[in-house]
Design brief:
By secondary structure, the chain is mainly α. 61% of the residues lie in helices and 0% in strands.
Length: 102
């Protein structure tokens, strides 16, 4: 029996569509101006290439408080210190993309 490779849809590697991107941008609005600026730069650079998996990871980061998110962005705390549930490869990847835009 031959195995088929996983499709992009099955892996979450497909690109985020315009509707999903619009919802994600709305979801990422923050109370702290600093976070809004960092996230805005992130979208300027990466919006056209975001995958569904990355969007889900970014959404998970948005569940954090503004201060925890800023601490992560500035590398004052680690993901493990902020939330054991967020200490995952997909979240680390998105966090590194956020940090590149500082």
């Amino acid at each position: 029996m031959s195995q088929r490779p996983e499709s992009k849809a099955a892996t979450g590697a497909e690109k985020l569509d315009e509707r999903g991107l619009s919802k994600l941008r709305w979801r990422c609005r923050r109370g702290l101006l600093e976070n809004d600026l960092f996230i805005g730069r992130f979208f300027e650079r990466h919006a056209h290439e975001l995958t569904v998996t990355q969007a889900q990871a970014l959404g998970d980061l948005m569940d954090l408080s503004d201060h925890d998110l800023l601490d992560l962005h500035l590398a004052r705390r680690t993901l493990a210190e902020v939330s054991k549930d967020l200490d995952r490869e997909d979240v680390r990847e998105v966090l590194s993309l956020l940090r590149v835009n500082r």
